[in-house]
Each structure stands twice: as structure tokens, then as C-alpha cells.
Amino acid sequence: MAIKRFHGESRGRCRAVVNSGLVYAVATDTSSGKSVAEQTRRTLEALEKTLLEAGSGKGGLLQATVYLRDMSTKAEMDAVWCDWVGGEENWPQRACVGADLAGADLVEIVVTAAQT
């Protein structure tokens, strides 16, 4: 099966890659919102757009890793995540990790999803 790459604005990496019915995607808030909630909302909007473009969606989510600059903001991020992801039929296996993110990024989300 051919590998399909969805290029983004950043040189040297893709916002998604599809192979063998799986979508591997990543997103951040490119406008660098001021709060974790705002950045999470925008990141998830970008992620959903990418997933749909790649033939998947929230219902295809298998795994997610959320990277936060400050783990004390996890509850704020989680509230936005839970509103976005919807019912338990969409819940992926998820981890949340503290990380030294680039620039003004407060959150970055990486997912694996099945094409639906």
C-alpha cells in the first residue's frame, strides 16, 4: 500500500501520514493563543481537519499523546479535550506528558487513527 503524506507549513515534516489504513497526525496552535484552553481548542480544530482530509475522524481515533508545556494546566486542556472528543465511542488510549515545547506552544497533540 502506498504511503500518502499531508504536508504542512513546517519544513522537514508532515502534519499527517497515511499507510495501511492508519493515519498518523500531529497538530499545534499555529496562532499561538494565550491560554492552554485556547491553544487546545485550535489544535483540535486543526487536528480534526487533518483527520477528515486523511479519511478518518474522531470516531477513528486509536491513540493520542498530548504534550503540555506545564502539567499544572492539564485540567484546563482536559476540559477542552473532553468536549471535543465526544462520547466514549470516540475515546482513544491517551497519555499526557510534560514537555519543553518550541516557541509559544503550550500544547501539541499527536494521534494515530484508523481510516473510516
Protein described:
β4 (61-68), α2 (74-85) and β5 form a beta-alpha-beta unit. The model has no long low-confidence stretch (mean pLDDT 95). α1 (36-53) runs parallel beside α2. The protein has a single domain, classed as RutC-like (60s Ribosomal Protein L30, Chain: A), CATH 3.30.1330.40. It is an alpha+beta fold and 116 residues long. The two termini are 16 Å apart. The chain has a six-stranded mixed sheet. Helix content is 26%, strand content 34%.
From the N-terminal CA to the C-terminal CA, the straight-line distance is 16 Å
What's the architecture in CATH terms? 2-Layer Sandwich
Discrete helix count: 2
Q: How many whole angstroms does the radius of gyration measure? A: 14 Å
Mean pLDDT, to the nearest integer, reads 95
CATH class: Alpha Beta
The residue fraction in helices comes out at 25-40%
The proportion of strand residues reads: 25-35%
CATH superfamily: RutC-like
- Compute the number of strand runs: 6
**Residue ranges: pLDDT <50 for 5 or more in a row?**
none
Largest pleated sheet: 6 strands, mixed
Number of domains: 1
Shape: globular
Instruction: Give the neighbour order of strands across the main sheet.
Output: 1-2-3-6-4-5
SSE arrangement, N to C: EEEHEHEE
Counting helices, strands and paired strands, the structural category is: alpha+beta
